[in-house]
Amino acid sequence: MALLVAGLPFLFGGLAIGYALPVKAALPVTQLVFFPMAFGGGLFLPPTIFPDWLQTVSAILPSRGARDLVVGAVTGAPPDAVAMVAFAVWTVVTAVLAGWAYRRDEGRRFG
């Protein structure tokens, strides 16, 4: 269940980018957005070894919240509270953006 929830902001973010941009621009923009987010969120290295400034930034990235959810589900470790609040905010914001981009795209194609 944690893995499904962890993917929501990325699903919505991908949909928002896909509906908002032309086909040829969507893939590079997605890579430019999601790769640094994955690194900063601690998906490649544990956030505990980051410098202080990157630990602060890491806590507000959705990838950190997703990481904490999955690690918590596997190990039983409690997730960081700031990361969970930021994760929830990112999920809502990306869902709203995806909805807006979808309506905008539908209006352009069929309006």
Strand percentage: under 5%
Succession of helices and strands: HHHHHH
Structural class assignment: mainly alpha
**Count of separate structural domains:** 1
The helix count comes to 6
Give the uncertain stretches in residue-range form: none
Distance between the termini: 38 Å
The main β sheet shows up as: none
DSSP E strands, number: 0
Mean pLDDT: 94
The shape, in one word, is elongated
Instruction: Please give the radius of gyration in angstroms.
Output: 15 Å
* Approximate helicity band: over 70%
Transmembrane segments: 81-102
Protein name: ABC-2 type transporter domain-containing protein
InterPro entries: Nod_factor_ABC_transporter
Keywords: Membrane, Transmembrane, Transmembrane helix
What key attributes describe this structure?
single chain; mainly alpha; ABC-2 type transporter domain-containing protein; 111 residues; transmembrane helix
Concise synopsis of the structure shown:
With 111 residues, this protein is mainly alpha-helical.
Protein architecture, described:
With 111 residues, the chain is mainly alpha-helical. It has one domain (2-110). The protein is 78% helix and 0% strand. It contains 6 helices and no strands. It has helices spanning 2-6, 8-20, 23-40, 52-58, 62-75, 81-110. Helix 2 (8-20) packs antiparallel against helix 3 and helix 5 (62-75) crosses helix 6 (81-110). The longest helix has 30 residues, at 81-110. The protein is elongated and about 50 Å long. The mean pLDDT is 94.
